[in-house]
Amino acid sequence: MSRIDLSKELNKNFxxxxxxxxxxxxxxxxxxxxxxxxxxxxxxxxxxxxxxTRDMVDLSYLLGRTSPSxxxxxxxxLLGITALSRFANERLKKEVFENYLRNKTIFAFCMTEKNVGxxxxxxxxxxxxxxxxxxxxxxxxxxxxISIAEHLIxxxxxxxxxxxxxxxxxxxVPRRSHLSKNTPDSISVMNEYEKxxxxxxxxxxxSFSEVWIPTENLLGNxxxxxxxxxxxxxxxxxxxxxxxxxxxxxxxxxACKHLEKRIxxxxxxxxxxxxxxxxxxxxxxxxxxxxxxxxxSETWDxxxxxxxxxxxxxxxxxxxAVRTVSDCLELCGAEGYxxxxxxxxxxxxxxxxxxxxxxIS
Length: 361
Description:
This protein has three domains: 8-103, Butyryl-Coa Dehydrogenase, subunit A, domain 1, CATH 1.10.540.10; 107-223, Butyryl-CoA Dehydrogenase, subunit A, domain 2; 226-354, Butyryl-CoA Dehydrogenase, subunit A, domain 3, CATH 1.20.140.10. Helices cover 48% and strands 17% of the residues. The chain has helices at 8-18, 25-34, 53-66, 68-87, 90-103, 225-261, 273-303, 307-331, 333-336, 342-350, and strands at residues 107-110, 126-129, 133-144, 151-159, 165-174, 187-190, 203-214, 218-219, 263-264, 267-268. The longest helix is centred in the last third of the chain and has 37 residues, at 225-261.
């Protein structure tokens, strides 16, 4: 069944961009950028289409079917756009988004750390306040897009000159800063990881050493970091739900194609009652996940926030996708266990959907 309500023009542009998809996600992202897909979420006042969350769900579904690795890179970029468009001052938005569109640059969303994970309230990255800005020191880890990103959104614990804590805050940090107070090695990428799956999506760590940030690069107010994080991540959870449904759908397609060509006693294996019953149960779970995801997207577009609905959609859909891909791999038999079969890489990639962006409230 067709799940996509994306306009024919947008869908055509997206599919044309995917024709150039490469094993390297940076190449695929560049292709999406050139096709204008990565500007769809920008505010209309900055030459974007400002598409609805419902349209983003359709786009994420297509990415989940096509490449979970590319979906991870796309959503990391979208997190940065969301943070900047909702919480930055107008001057900063104009400067950054003009650069983003002109030079086809990419965002990274720097929140996780090796010893605290997604618990941003416990971050050890510090931003020391001065009279005209902040000095950033610390390390973030497991950051998608960090090796190719020009624009960083960084969450850090802010302290005053006496060391008193001022709460967790969010900052915009340009990767190649034009600011004279920073040296070329103030920001350095390290520990590029080879993962269980989604290795086409870049993941690495980044360290900050006395990186100077002007006051105007603070997003929102001092101490607003956790609120900003919750708003940005909750919409992303909705999109993870959509990508999970896309991954599950393509897994079922792989399984059905295999079952149709496998003949047992003169009949395709897919005609066996127990196989048909198994596929029916899988379809019910997929449809339930899709309905939860659509509900969350509609709540977002109607109310501007959907923390509860987004969390439920992400949790249910991601768990469903992991189970479905595993079940479909079994239905593909020995052929599905071969590294050359597309469900093998999907099996590894789908597990990340249930790990990323946990139930942050």
